[in-house]
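User: Predict the full complex structure for these chains.
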Amino acid sequence: MERIAARRRPGRPQREIGGIEQRPWKQLTRPYQPIEILSADQVQTIHEMGLTILEEIGMRVLQPQARQFYRSAGCDVDEGEMRVRFDRAMVMEHVAMVPSSFELRARNPEKNVKVGGRHCILSSVGGPAYVMDNDRGRRPGTYAEMCDYLKLIQSFNVLHQEGGGPFEPLDLHQNTRHLDLYYAEITLLDKNWQPQALGRGRAVDALEMVAISLGTTRENLANEMPVFTGIINTNSPLQLDEPMAEGLIALAEHGQVNVITPFTLAGAMSPVTLAGALSQQHAEALAGIVLTQIVRPGVPVMYGGFTSNVDMKTGAPAFGTPEYTQAAQITGQLCRLIGVPFRSSNVTAANSVDAQAAYESAMSLWGCLMGGANLVLHAAGWLGGGLTASFEKLVIDAEMLQMMSAYFDPPVVDIDTLALEAVREVGPAGHFFGAAHTMQRYERAFYSPLVSNWDNYDTWMERGQVTARERANVIWKRMVAEYEQPPIDPGIDEALRDYMERRKREGGCPLN
Amino acid sequence: MERIAARRRPGRPQREIGGIEQRPWKQLTRPYQPIEILSADQVQTIHEMGLTILEEIGMRVLQPQARQFYRSAGCDVDEGEMRVRFDRAMVMEHVAMVPSSFELRARNPEKNVKVGGRHCILSSVGGPAYVMDNDRGRRPGTYAEMCDYLKLIQSFNVLHQEGGGPFEPLDLHQNTRHLDLYYAEITLLDKNWQPQALGRGRAVDALEMVAISLGTTRENLANEMPVFTGIINTNSPLQLDEPMAEGLIALAEHGQVNVITPFTLAGAMSPVTLAGALSQQHAEALAGIVLTQIVRPGVPVMYGGFTSNVDMKTGAPAFGTPEYTQAAQITGQLCRLIGVPFRSSNVTAANSVDAQAAYESAMSLWGCLMGGANLVLHAAGWLGGGLTASFEKLVIDAEMLQMMSAYFDPPVVDIDTLALEAVREVGPAGHFFGAAHTMQRYERAFYSPLVSNWDNYDTWMERGQVTARERANVIWKRMVAEYEQPPIDPGIDEALRDYMERRKREGGCPLN
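Assistant: Here is the predicted structure of the two-chain assembly.
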C-alpha cells in the first residue's frame, strides 16, 4: 500500500483549462544511446539478406528512364520483365557516396534543421484523404480547413517541418491543387516543408515555387543547401512504379533529398516474419538509395522505415504495435550500419482520439526516437491508419512530442542542482515550497503541459470533467485564432501567385 | 506524401469487439540494455550526495525501536531530536549484505516470480481510496467490488502480483478490513500478493495468514523463500514514521522483502531540481535499506523510486512527466550501482481514462521497464494520481503491459524467419497472404490486442464508434463473468476463516 498525501501549494491560482504554454523552438538532439533490438551480427545478417534479395530476385522497375539509369551503373536489366538485379558490391559502392548528415533550408533561416547523427526533426502528418475534428467528425477537407491546419503546424514550436500537405483539399481541382498547397505551405509557414513527389510535374512545380520563395532559381537549387525531403514509397514487394521513379529522379537531379520508404506490411506486402519483412524493406530501400546516387552521386538521401504488420484475421494494417516499435529500432540499426540517415513515423490505427490513439502513438514515438530516427514524419496529427488528419490528435501529439523533447534534456548535475544546502535548510519533515532554492527556480523547473490536466478529481468534476480530447479542441481553436502569419516579401508573394496562375492556366498536372 | 493502400484479406471474418485474447503467463525479462540518462560519474555523484545527506543531516526516526536498531549498528542518534546520522562506510557495509536477486513464492508454485537482474514483475494498483468505472463514476468502494477487481487481477496473465489491495472496501470496519482483504487476496488469487505494512499488527496478520495459506507457520517463514514485498514509504523529507518503521521491522524479522520507497515530489517534499530530489531519495532509501540489514543481515530488500514533481503553479502532483521518466531511469542506474533490486510504478494524474491517462502511463512504463525496474507496482489500474482504482484503466494498462511484454520478445533471426524463399516465391508486386511461409505462421505471428480496435473507419462507425474506454468496460465485465476461482484446500480455507474470525473478535488493528 502506498500512502500518498498530496500537499497543495497555498494561495496560488489553479491553471486555466486550455492555457497554451509551449517549449521554445528547438531541434531535438538525442542524448541517450539508441535502443538496440538485435545483435550486431543479426543486423549484419539482415543487411546481407537485403543484398541477396537485390542480387537474386531484384526489383521490378516500371519507369524506363529509371531502368536506363540502373543499366548505366552496371545492373542486370531484363526489359521484358522490367526486372533489375543488383551486384552487391555495386550497391555498397553507391551507398558509400551517401552523406551521413546534411542541413535542410527553411524560408526562415533560423528554422533550418540538421538531419543525421543524433539530430532529429519532427514533421507533421502528410497525405491523409480526410480531415476530422470533435465538432464535425471525419469528412473530406477543404482548402480553408487545410490552411487552418497549416497555421497550427506553423504555431507548434515542437514541429520542425511541414509534412507534405495534411490532407487533400477536395474543393480544389485535382490537377492543380498541389499548386495551392505549395503556396499555402510557403506563405502560411516559415518552416521547411515537403513537396509531393508523385510524378515529375508535381515535383518540378514544387522546385520552381520553393526557388521563388528563396530568391533563387530551380537550376541553382542543386548547388545550394537542400530544401526538400520527398517521400518515395516503393510499391512493395519489390516494385518501383512510374510516378515514384519520376519524382525520385526529379528530386535527385535537383540535389534534393529522397526519403526511400518501402511500405512493407508484414504478412501482406512482405513476409509474415519481422526478419523477413525487414530484409525485404532493406532491399527496397537500398534499390532506391542506389538510384539517387546514380542520378547524382553524393546527393543526400534518407532511408525510411515503415514496416508494420497486418491483423492476420482481417488484413487490416496495424500501427504502433510491439512489432512496429521493434521494426523501427531495428531499422535504426540498419541505417547506422550503412551510414544513411533514418526516417520513421508516429502512427496509430485508432479511429478516435482516445487511449488507444495515445498508447499506439507512444509505442511509435519511443520506437522512432529511441531508435535514432533523424526525421519523424506524421509526428503529429495522424489518425485512423493515416487516412485521417485529426485536429485534436495534432494537439495531443504535440504534447507527447514536447514531453519527449523535455525527456531529451537530461537533468543537470552540479553543486547548484544537487541542493545539499536546501535539504539542510528544510530538514526532516519540512517542505520545500518556500525554500530559497525553490523560489529561485520554480517557474522553469519542470515540464509545463499543453493539454494534460493535473487538477484533483473534485476540481476536475467542478470544471466539467473535460477530457484530453475536449481540451485539445479548445486549444487548437484558440491557436488558430491567435495565429500570426510570418512576413513575406511582397515581390516574392506576387511571383508565387504569377507562377501558380500560369500553371493553372496550363492545366496543372493531369493524373492518369 | 505517403501513399497507403491497405489490402484486406478476403473471406475472413472481422474480429469481434471485446474479444478477449491474452498472452500466456510469462514473467518479463528485459532483453535490451537499460536506458542510461546520466553518465557513470554523475550517478556516482548523486550516490555520494545521498551518503553526505545521511552523514551530515541524517533522518528523523520516530519509532524508538528503530532508533535503537540504528544505535546498535553504530549510528549517531540524538534522542531529543529523534535524529539518526549515518557514517558512510557503515551504510555501504550494510548495503553490501543485500542480495541482488531472489525469488518470491506464490500459492501456485508455477506463479513464483524472480526479482533482480533483468527480471521484472508487474503488480496491480495498490492503496487507492476510491473505485471508478464508466457506469457509476468514482465512489467509495465496497468489499464486493473489491473482490471483482481482484478477480480481474487474477485473470490477467500479464499481472504477476497483486499490489496490496486495489482500493479500500469502505463497507467494512477499518480495524478489521485488512483481514478480509488478505482472505480475498489468498483465495481469489493464486498469485503472489502484497500485505499492508502500515504498523506491526497488520503486518503480523498478513504473515500469519500467508503462512496458513502455504501450510507453514509464521515462525518458519524466515527460513523459506520470501513471500511478501511490503511497501515502506518514508515521510519525505528525511523522516521515517512509527507505523512504517514497525511494518519494516516486522517484515524484515520474518525474512520478508521491504520495498523502501521515498515519496520525493520535487518542489514539495524534495528539492525542485531532479539531481537534488534524487540525492534525497537516495539518502532515504539507503536509510531504510540499512535498517532492514541491521534487523536481519542478508534479508532481501528493494529500492523504490517514486520521484516525480509538483505543478509549481498549484502544488498538484504530476505523474508520467518527462521528469518522472528520467527519475525512474536514473533510479535504475543508482540501483545497479549499489546492487539492490529496483521498484518503480505506472502512474498518471489523469482523472479520466483518456489519451492523457494513456500517454502519461506510457511515459511511466518506458521509464520503468527501460530503466531496469524489477518490480512495477501500480502497473495496472492506477488513475487520478493514485487516489482511484479504475476498472477500465486496469484493462487499458493490461493492454499496454502486454504490448511491452511482446516488445521484450525480440524477433528471431534465422533461415526460416529471413524468408528468402517466400520473397522469391511471391516476387515483385505480389502479395504474401497466400504464401506457404505465411500460412504456416500467421496465427501466432503478431501481437493480438486485447482492447485495440483496428477496424477501418466505416466499419468502426457502423459498429457504434466504440472508444477504447468503452471497449475496456465490455472486457472487464466479461472477464469478471468468466472468472474461475483457483482451487484451495478446504482445511486451509477453514483455518484462514478461523484466524480471521478470531482476530475480528479481538478487535483487529485499531488505527490511532
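Residues 3-19 of chain B have pLDDT under 50 and may be disordered.
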